[in-house]
Amino acid sequence: MSRKLKIGIAGLGRMGARHANHFNALTPRAELIAACSPAPHELEWAATNLPDVRTYSSFDEMLENETALEAVVIASITAAHAEQAIKAMQKGLHVLCEKPLSIDAEISQTVVDTYAKSIKQYPSQKVMCGFSRRFDASYQDAYAKTRSGLIGRPTIFRSQTCDKRDPSGFFINFAASSGGIFVDCSVHDIDLALWFLGEDSVIKSISAVGVSAVSPGLDAHNDRDNAVGFVEFWGGKIAYFYTCRMMAAGQEDSTEIIGTEGKLTVNMQPQMNLVSIYESTGIRKEIPQNYYDRFREALVNEANEFVACCLDDKPLPLKLSGAVSAVRIAHALQESMISGKKIDFDEAGTRIVPTLNGH
Amino acid sequence: MSRKLKIGIAGLGRMGARHANHFNALTPRAELIAACSPAPHELEWAATNLPDVRTYSSFDEMLENETALEAVVIASITAAHAEQAIKAMQKGLHVLCEKPLSIDAEISQTVVDTYAKSIKQYPSQKVMCGFSRRFDASYQDAYAKTRSGLIGRPTIFRSQTCDKRDPSGFFINFAASSGGIFVDCSVHDIDLALWFLGEDSVIKSISAVGVSAVSPGLDAHNDRDNAVGFVEFWGGKIAYFYTCRMMAAGQEDSTEIIGTEGKLTVNMQPQMNLVSIYESTGIRKEIPQNYYDRFREALVNEANEFVACCLDDKPLPLKLSGAVSAVRIAHALQESMISGKKIDFDEAGTRIVPTLNGH
Amino acid sequence: MSRKLKIGIAGLGRMGARHANHFNALTPRAELIAACSPAPHELEWAATNLPDVRTYSSFDEMLENETALEAVVIASITAAHAEQAIKAMQKGLHVLCEKPLSIDAEISQTVVDTYAKSIKQYPSQKVMCGFSRRFDASYQDAYAKTRSGLIGRPTIFRSQTCDKRDPSGFFINFAASSGGIFVDCSVHDIDLALWFLGEDSVIKSISAVGVSAVSPGLDAHNDRDNAVGFVEFWGGKIAYFYTCRMMAAGQEDSTEIIGTEGKLTVNMQPQMNLVSIYESTGIRKEIPQNYYDRFREALVNEANEFVACCLDDKPLPLKLSGAVSAVRIAHALQESMISGKKIDFDEAGTRIVPTLNGH
Amino acid sequence: MSRKLKIGIAGLGRMGARHANHFNALTPRAELIAACSPAPHELEWAATNLPDVRTYSSFDEMLENETALEAVVIASITAAHAEQAIKAMQKGLHVLCEKPLSIDAEISQTVVDTYAKSIKQYPSQKVMCGFSRRFDASYQDAYAKTRSGLIGRPTIFRSQTCDKRDPSGFFINFAASSGGIFVDCSVHDIDLALWFLGEDSVIKSISAVGVSAVSPGLDAHNDRDNAVGFVEFWGGKIAYFYTCRMMAAGQEDSTEIIGTEGKLTVNMQPQMNLVSIYESTGIRKEIPQNYYDRFREALVNEANEFVACCLDDKPLPLKLSGAVSAVRIAHALQESMISGKKIDFDEAGTRIVPTLNGH
């Protein structure tokens, strides 16, 4: 029972360092034994903050040397996710990979395909893409209530990922590699939509629009800083999304699940904590300033649940294939936003290509 | 059905002008025909704002000349309330008197006694002291729910009247004639306590403390700008109160009714309207800045209900004697706050005077 | 100053009776002198509730006989709005017409055109289409704050009109004449979008989807009980809408205005009043059950402001042409929802008809 | 840096098991090496849930055998707290003792006195009484804001500890040893009052009342299930408290800190998480059902901060003497509630004994 899962982590950047701290200190059944990063300052950070963890400047080297390794957490740059995940799988390791597997849906699919093969060889192998919001206590409560039938049949799903405005212009530089705002931000909302409306939901149509309100430079990258889109599913279900990078107050990630008999909302009034401030201008609540402020506990929970699934050989709470579905939808939203065209799909979910006679 | 009650108003100061507007324009079954005030600028206000209303510089003159008058609304200075109410009653008129009848409980009692005699002569006569909070839609809803048994037996009652800090020092000048903070402010909360816990509740003990946090000048008037007190009733019921004159954000009048099976709250989160403001410092709600911002609708409602009771000869929703009970309790709280002594009452509600051997 | 505007009302159904009460009792500067309805039970209602008002079974008759009439309020069935408005205008009367002028945009336009001519003959004539939400105190506050620059440049507008589920099936029967859910419900949100984003906003594209989740019978009328749509405007502004007829809790009409420097929300947490109920299942707030619960004060405010504009010859707060714009957009959303096609417009706002070579 | 503090725990009941889990799994810098309990079923629980921890049936035995021990966590029955704390101190161990040190203020004082002597021998020794609420993120935020001057001078402090009604009657049986509702529940609020108003605040008077609304059996133990009390401090500061054991909805522990320039509130609207439930009866929020639901994170935080202070020889965030002050005040409130008498203190904080001539 007190055996600990031996874990290595790839990438010690902003998210990587958080994961490293979680697995090192807040995941009692895990033991972080190794970490790798090509960035010298990240390795320095590890030397100070993870003194008991061996460090490497390359992923391959870590895999080669750490023969006791049982699982890897991949929090490197997105472009490295798929390759590292595949290499780790081929060694029989469990994998927790930060989202997305890749901003490219086809490459994402290869990760899923590799896992499908790998699991035949390693039947207990666990590979999960980290959609952290699924591990948030409020989303889990809303999901349990939805499953219990409290709101009847879930029909309309609204969700938004809205970041506080970052005047540093980080997003513009990041735009080239982010896959776009729907892929980078809304992919969380899309994953939630599939969770609540059914992972087997088949897309009927997609339409989106966007504007660059405060970062006109995004247009050059075929990206926007505000975007609205909807996804219609066969069988009478709709998900619609808003995402933005210019919120004044902070991180505003909220969700509504509307069913035939009731509705559930998550975080309709963001709040940092339980304090209210009464001052001459009114009553004020501070709110989370970033994703981590809001979802730190979810990430810790994710770490613990992943480890428990590996150690106890339990089924993972989310399927790897969902990560591909979410990215595919995100890409279609991004495409629709840029092209200005609605995209239709047949009942098998296959895209309908418009012909000369219209679609 | 379309007959209108002919009304005269005494006093056109801050509250008087509001009442005049309500009876003139927002009480369809009333007709404001006359108004009086000893203050020339108030009569000028009336000339402009109530052009169809005859004005007088004295109450007696108004009563003498306006032979068609059916009811008077008394919103003059507190010291004039009792005398004017008694004079109007003696003419057989209906009376709506602003609270308090008097800051002196004995004088208040004479108004009640006069009414008890007068109603024998004029059986349809209505005399009401305007505890406006009873006409607020939220308090009425809470009361109906309490009566329905929703929270079991009401046991603990908490209520506060908290004014926005007024840097003009108005309260200090007013302290000499206000009767003190419990009489001026908490009397509303005390009236509500009697309403929710039972008008027949018998006091067992009273204890209060106060501080002058921002207006040290109040001490000279035996008053304070913050006060806390409780009233224990025989039969296992407690009301406790907080009142203050230094709130930063605005008017904060909130109430909790705690029963053996549930709890109701009124206005635990003050708000001016349904708007929320998201800005770099968080999410902000503006709140009412004064009593009128919060209770304007209640006052209009009071005017309409009073008129309906007069025209339709229906029982008034609150008993005049309650106004005396509330003032008596307010005085005892004020006394306890100043003397630093708890005051005890026997099961008949008679004050127990401590003897040399203790009480 | 105390002159009263003489008003006649057409239609005494659900909304008509409310308007009649407002103009009769809660609009001090108005005098309701006449009312008409072809429905005998509505005239009976008037005989009881509006005893001082003369009644007619036809609109023409009312106009002919009531020579003192200065203004009419049109609250008859939608199909009669345009004709009655035009007839009244031609008599030189002021007109307050319930929304929509017509479910047909071309007919709506004829009302606007008639007014353009009529006002040359009667320069003080006021004709307004009753978008009541503009008279709600919270929306007015949000609008003033937006105008003041508090949120920078308004960019994204989200609004929803969501009705409580009505198990009687009323909506299905009404679907044939309602113009559809976007025309019947979202027209309010569209009007608000134009108000906040600018009345001169030019549409770039429209896309919508819908489902019939609880009223499958609506499909036969080309209608749905849940619909999501967006309107993209030239110049980098987006409005998106949700509307539904199956809310469990009650009326949920909420709005967000997202600007480059901040955000305002209206009614993100619906509430009936300021009471909270604490019981074994948690803390509960009751919410408005229908449009009137939520917007009664706005309707009264609308009546008073309309009357003031007529009596004082002030400009109306909203332009009649806006009513046509809102209906045109609503129709395009409805069309897009039914056809499954996105609709594009050029920079002049002219619809682009897709050609054989695609659009 | 990665050295871990070796810890033993005394008591594995409800709170003890929680502490054991926190120190075992959620306090990375601690190593729980031993546990003791006289209760066989608690030791069985440890065998299953703390397999790596050595267990003992007596505290003395644990202390004797575990020579590597550096700190003990005392979560045994209240009556054992003081003796165990003193024994551990005498061995030079760090001590984290659950509140209260004792329900008897004099015994509590002996713990403080022992520490005062012990620290001369062991200058790095840390002894803390676990007022867990001080480690809650919201209270810490409110405290930091208060210290920063945001609300001016803190003047009025209101706080309540309200438990969900427990129909099992547990409290009645517990009443005999709990010290009473003020000692058992309000001691947290009192400690917070001293924190926010100043640890050096000197009591001027105390008055309290209570009722047994749902558990009449409490009267036999000189206890109540609802109690209200206030503490007046010299220098113009007041704290007032409400505590109850019959809340319908759940745990409602809320606090207001009112200063001369503003106000802060903590948890004025309890909530379990960020989910809202929309159903036919309105909008509902679930709330914490017990103290642990609400303060789990605070307890984990407390464990980590205590360990950090021990390992890094940092000053503890709260003084041991405060635990005695809080218990003394709680006792005086309880006494006042039972005797029905107000208790006065002179400017040195010495109780004034009423004489034959009154006080």
TrEMBL record, chains A, B, C, D:
Question: What are the GO MF terms of this UniProt record?
Answer: nucleotide binding; oxidoreductase activity
| InterPro entries, sorted | Gfo/Idh/MocA-like_OxRdtase_N, GFO_IDH_MocA-like_dom, NAD(P)-bd_dom_sf
Query: Which keywords annotate this record?
Result: Oxidoreductase
Q: Which PANTHER family match?
A: BINDING ROSSMANN FOLD OXIDOREDUCTASE, PUTATIVE (AFU_ORTHOLOGUE AFUA_2G10240)-RELATED, NAD(P)-BINDING ROSSMANN-FOLD SUPERFAMILY PROTEIN-RELATED
**Pfam families associated with the record:** GFO_IDH_MocA, GFO_IDH_MocA_C3
* Residue ranges constituting the GFO/IDH/MocA-like oxidoreductase domain according to the UniProt record: 140-264
Q: Name one GO cellular component term.
A: cytoplasm
Q: List this protein's GO terms for biological process.
A: NADPH regeneration
Q: Does the keyword Cytoplasm apply?
A: no
The protein's name? Scyllo-inositol 2-dehydrogenase (NAD(+))
Q: Does the keyword 4Fe-4S apply?
A: no
Similarity comment: Belongs to the Gfo/Idh/MocA family.
What residue stretches are annotated with the Gfo/Idh/MocA-like oxidoreductase N-terminal domain? Answer: 5-118
